[in-house]
Write a structure and sequence with these properties.
Elements lengths: L5 H8 L6 H5 L11 E5 L6 E6 L2 H12 L13 E7 L2 H6 L6 E7 L17 H26 L6 H16 L4 H8 L13 H5 L7 H20 L7 H8 L27
Parallel strand pairs: 2-4
Antiparallel strand pairs: 1-2, 3-4
Length: about 270
């Protein structure tokens, strides 16, 4: 049921009730028992969260809710998606035609496909998956908070650093620049590994700028770790985000940033 199909336009765009023939051809989850819906509380507002255990189910739900049922490719290291502007006919009928839903989709798996042995304290696989879910949820909530702070959802390396910092601190108790590098899929020199998450965050940049941008985010990550360890930045997640969103990828972090700046490499893309 692709976005331009008659069925998609009837059911999603016009909100018609599904007919028996629509239900017959509807996609099915491979692991329905691994599916759950919860509400995540957050200072920026409570958000519904869909969690699934099967990766194929995650890809299916992500394609349906975030990509108009189009068969877009999904990297194996991607295990979460924040969806904004989702058409929800319950909201439209009860509130207003302009109202849209925001939802988080999470796959229960090791964060960014990192092994448990690479995590400080060497947790068991079950413990690491639980920590990963906390990291993943807080990461996506941080993106939503950043959107409220800067006025748009930005898909770039700097915001990925901010979201990973919040998620990692909440899940593991501290931020580690080396673990951030491994999770992003970067080599020490800033080059990008073939299956890296980082490819998503540099696709709007000139290819000649990819390595330079990655080297910058690694430098910012090292600065962030040092500043958090020496308490030069607030530990509270929202206060930390407010401080960091005033910085940019191409400028060294400061404990008290007062003047907003823009970066040639801080690519922005609405969600």
């Amino acid at each position: 049921m692709a976005g331009l199909s008659d069925r998609y336009q009837r059911l999603v765009l016009r909100g018609e009730s599904p007919q028996p023939k629509d239900l017959e051809v509807a996609p099915r989850l491979r692991d329905p028992k691994g599916f759950s819906i919860t509400i995540a509380n957050h200072p920026c507002g409570a958000k519904p969260v869909l969690s699934v255990s099967d990766h194929d189910d995650f890809v299916l739900i992500m394609r349906c809710l975030a990509h108009r049922c189009e068969p877009i490719p999904v990297q194996g290291t991607v295990h979460a998606q924040a969806v904004a502007g989702l058409i929800h006919w319950g909201l439209i009928r009860e509130l207003d035609v302009k109202d849209r839903c925001q939802i988080l989709i999470l796959h229960r798996a090791p964060y960014s496909s990192l092994s448990a042995s690479s995590i400080p304290g060497r947790p068991s696989l079950d413990q690491w998956i639980k920590q990963s879910q906390i990291w993943r949820l807080e990461h996506e909530l941080a993106h939503i908070a950043c959107r409220k702070l800067v006025g748009e959802m930005r898909i770039n390396l700097f915001d990925e650093l901010l979201a990973d910092a919040i998620g990692m601190k909440t899940a593991l108790g501290h931020f580690q620049a080396e673990l951030f590098r491994q999770g992003l899929g970067l080599n020490l020199d800033g080059t990008i590994q073939d299956d890296a998450r980082a490819h998503i965050y540099v696709q709007q940049l000139d290819p000649n700028d990819h390595v330079a941008a990655c080297q910058m985010v690694l430098a910012r990550a090292n600065e962030l770790e040092q500043m958090l360890n020496t308490k030069q930045l607030p530990s509270d997640s929202i206060k930390l985000l407010k401080s960091l969103t005033r910085s940019t990828l191409d400028q060294a972090l400061k404990s008290n940033v007062k003047t907003p700046n823009t970066s040639r490499l801080s690519n922005k893309k609405p969600c």
